[in-house]
């Protein structure tokens, strides 16, 4: 179990550092929305093959919750994964802050750490990148996480799924291409928690949505697999 927790810590650390790092260090003016989307997706692909054989590469409390809901994980393991994932995200965001602070043009208050948000964007960079409402953000996060978990639970049914990491990473990429302007894209409570802990303000106030909505979406997907509504006739 210790190996699993270390793997989940490293995987979530990597996702936040490179995904949020693309937004903070590259931004829309350099790598653009497509570049940020691929940074998140490729980070997942890399970690899926790097730590997948150890922990399954959840790197996301919502994924662990969906796996648990589907009956593929114990409660104790899920709680341990949650702790490792949240710590990895917080440390990853902290390292990103240290790196970004090395630029004289960067300030945490103005540029943030790629935190998620909803509502009209403030001068301090908090809120929805496209000024989308709380309702829009909630609907997107539930549906996007649901579909993300459908892919994850579907492609990992077989131990021989050699392309599972690629499928999962590409799914996360397209979710970001569509949703960055809505919420900055969470579908991952740990990914939202990490930057919010350092940014504070509205990022912490709005964090509830990026915990609750992904969990709802993941739970729904897990339930469909648990009752075999999304399983083949042979039970796989």
Descriptive report:
With 236 residues, the protein is mostly helical. It has one domain: Glycerol uptake facilitator protein, CATH 1.20.1080.10. It is built from eleven helices and no strands. The chain has helices at residues 2-30, 32-50, 52-55, 61-69, 75-100, 108-111, 134-155, 164-183, 189-199, 202-205, 207-226. Helix 2 (32-50) runs antiparallel to helix 8 (164-183) and helix 4 (61-69) packs parallel to helix 11. The longest helix is centred in the first third of the chain and has 29 residues, at 2-30. The chain is globular, with a radius of gyration of 17 Å.
Radius of gyration: 17 Å
What is the level-2 CATH architecture name? Up-down Bundle
The global form is: globular
The chain-level structural class is mainly alpha
H and E string? HHHHHHHHHHH
| Main beta sheet | none
Estimated share of beta-strand residues: under 5%
Please identify the top-level CATH class.
Mainly Alpha
- The CATH topology is what? Glycerol uptake facilitator protein
- Tally of extended strands? 0
Helix content range: over 70%
Total domain count: 1
List keywords for this structure.
236 residues, Glycerol uptake facilitator protein, mainly alpha
Strand-helix topology:
Elements: H1 2-30, H2 32-50, H3 52-55, H4 61-69, H5 75-100, H6 108-111, H7 134-155, H8 164-183, H9 189-199, H10 202-205, H11 207-226
